[in-house]
Amino acid sequence: MKIIDGGLDDERVVALLRHHHATCRAVTPVGSAHALDLSGLRVPAIRFWSAWDGDTVLGVGALKTLSPDHGELKSMHTTEAARRRGVGSAMVRHIVEAGRARSMRRLSLETGSFDFFAPARALYARHGFVACGPFGDYRADPNSTFMTLAL
């Protein structure tokens, strides 16, 4: 597996992101889904990566700069076929290292609070993320779980 910078112009990545966005919107109550679409990922504050096995996209992830010392993990998604193969863990580690390289002192994330998102919450917890309150522009929401990691 190789993680590369970018991929937003590759149709395989675009298809995975469209699936991720549609799935998050379908399972999350209106007003509580925070998955970014392609235009939301194409802003200067976001750095995006894609994970590959040869010509096959395995997953995606992004880091949004909230302030010089605080970043947000965004748009994490692993293809169904690549799950339980370490792709998500590799992407989390990659994003954490990118945050450290930018001298960030904290990374935070928002994910769903219900059963569908339990595997994601477990993944983040395995990498040291702990529960926290809303951050940035987020507001308290019973459908959201907020987590943070000190770097």
Name the CATH superfamily classification. Answer: Gcn5-related N-acetyltransferase (GNAT)
* CA-atom Rg in angstroms: 14 Å
- CATH architectural name: 3-Layer(aba) Sandwich
Oligomer: single chain
In spatial order, strands of the major sheet run 1-2-3-4-5-7-6
> What proportion of the residues is helical, as a percent range?
25-40%
CATH topology: Aminopeptidase
Q: Major sheet, described briefly? A: 7 strands, mixed
DSSP strand (E) fraction? Answer: 25-35%
Give the SSE string: EHHEEEHEHEE
Mind explaining what this structure looks like?
This protein has 151 residues and is an alpha+beta fold. It has one domain (2-150): Aminopeptidase (3-Layer(aba) Sandwich). The chain is 30% helix and 33% strand. It contains four helices and seven strands. The protein has helices at 11-27, 38-41, 87-101, 118-126, and strands at residues 2-5, 46-53, 56-67, 70-78, 106-112, 130-132, 144-150. A seven-stranded mixed sheet has the order 1-2-3-4-5-7-6, sandwiched between helices. Strand 2 and strand 3 form a beta hairpin. The protein is globular, with a radius of gyration of 14 Å. The model has no long low-confidence stretch (mean pLDDT 96).
